[in-house]
Prior knowledge:
This protein has helices spanning 46-53, 76-81, 99-103, 114-131, 149-163, 179-194, 206-212, 235-243, and strands at 8-17, 20-30, 35-39, 61-66, 69-71, 84-87, 167-171, 198-202, 215-220, 223-229. It is an alpha/beta fold. The chain is globular, with a radius of gyration of 19 Å.
Amino acid sequence: MNGSTPVLEGRGLVRTYGTVQALQGADFAVEAGTVTALIGDNGAGKSTLVKVLSGVEQPDDGMILLDGQPVVFRTPMDAHRLGIETVFQDLALAPHLDAAANAFLGRELRRFGVFNARRAMRRSTIKSFADLGVTTVQDVSAPVMSLSGGQRQAVAIARSAMWAKRVIFLDEPTAALGVVQTRRVLDLIRQIRDRGLGVVLITHTLPDVLDVADRVEVLRFGRRTATFDRDDATVELLVSAITGVYSNVAVEAPTDVTEIDIAGGG
Length: 266
Ligand SMILES: Nc1ncnc2c1ncn2[C@@H]1O[C@H](COP(=O)(O)OP(=O)(O)OP(=O)(O)O)[C@@H](O)[C@H]1O
Ligand SMILES: [Mg+2]
């Protein structure tokens, strides 16, 4: 942290599913113009944290602050309106629609005449993709189900980048990608960061974390257990933090650790 107010912050977030305590008082912060990697083992609560911070899930306890002010996100639209966009682990694109229609899904332009609006959305999508250096999707009129995994990922990220004003969450955007496509996504992440947004990247690929992140936050059993500036982190240190060998954050003894389902879901 360099001392500036985080653009988005979670404090003491709790989210329980039945007997599973997915978040047990998690703290988290992201600053504008930085990439923050959010790492942790399967089931650590990363996706749940993202959902809570983007209005998809409501926390049972804790608070969310935007530019230092407490906010409540009742729905994802609340978060969207405040400039927060999310690429979820399962992408959530509409497979039968093309890239342009996906980019404007739920926020369609209204024009006199359907075709004008469609053309305008297509033009705008092509421009946004070009601005972001997304060159892999040549035909924004093709249904996204006909695209490769990497192209689909690019569509999902570019869509979020089109609308985000403050923060973008990317939940394992490179998990299914090859080396070249992964590098493209990391480049895209840097571009979005350089526009001044806070980017939150979830990944299990630690060299990618060291490659692109400015800061790293480590989640374990639904709590922040460590936080690093990029320059202080090594793969070994990150592994130690993920596995609970190392911590640099004061943590109260978690309750009911034995009941946590760490089998998780990927
Ligand atoms: N909708 C749900 N219903 C019940 N349990 C859930 C639900 N969502 C998450 N959980 C549980 O909460 C815990 C945290 O899950 P979460 O998906 O946040 O982990 P994660 O850190 O994203 O893991 P991964 O790296 O595998 O994606 C897991 O034990 C999971 O089973
Ligand atoms: Mg997850």
